[in-house]
Amino acid sequence: MTDIRIRPATLADLETVSSLFDAYRQFYQQAPDLDLARTFIAERMRRGECIVLLAEDGDGQAVGFCQLYPSFCSVEATSIYALYDLFVAPQCRRSGVGRGLLLAAEAEAGRRGASRMDLTTARSNRAAQSLYESLGWIRDEVFLAYSRRIPAGI
């Protein structure tokens, strides 16, 4: 696929980004819920808690997005970004859209003074892992990641 344009999304793009975000969540076995997707994205964007980059084809149709969250690395005492969401429409995969989004995210994080980006992906998502590694991302072999659900009402 050629002629891909990647740009920062704004609230004017909310419906488009929400649809892509809902498809992204479904990729990770979440039930479809466009209202939830819209509410979540709108809140993040309104609060300035994220950067959303939107990929469009030559006809202006949205074909992918990525979402970055600002964070910090205490050990390095520096700003970093977590690339938490990256999604390319199924019909556009293996066309360079994902690569373009990753490179645009790196450039955006660099412009904002970040020294690093981090991401996680499913162990089974070999296609994504191959793409990340082709761009110089290094799999962490030192640290283990843990998570814990917080019980409601605490």
Topology:
Blueprint: E1 5-8, H1 14-27, H2 34-46, E2 51-56, E3 62-73, E4 78-88, H3 97-111, E5 116-118, H4 126-134
Parallel strand pairs: 4-5
Antiparallel strand pairs: 1-2, 2-3, 3-4
Helix pairs in contact: 1-2
Which terms summarize this structure?
154 residues
Structural notes for this entry:
By secondary structure, the protein is α+β, with helices and mostly antiparallel strands. Helices cover 33% and strands 23% of the residues. It has helices at 14-27, 34-46, 97-111, 126-134; strands at 5-8, 51-56, 62-73, 78-88, 116-118. A five-stranded mixed β-sheet has the order 1-2-3-4-5, with helices on both faces. A hairpin with a 4-residue loop joins strand 3 and strand 4 (78-88). The longest helix has 15 residues, at 97-111.
CATH class: Alpha Beta
For the record, what is the CATH homologous superfamily label? Gcn5-related N-acetyltransferase (GNAT)
- What Rg do the Cα atoms give? 16 Å
CATH topology: Aminopeptidase
Q: Under the CATH scheme, which architecture would be assigned?
A: 3-Layer(aba) Sandwich
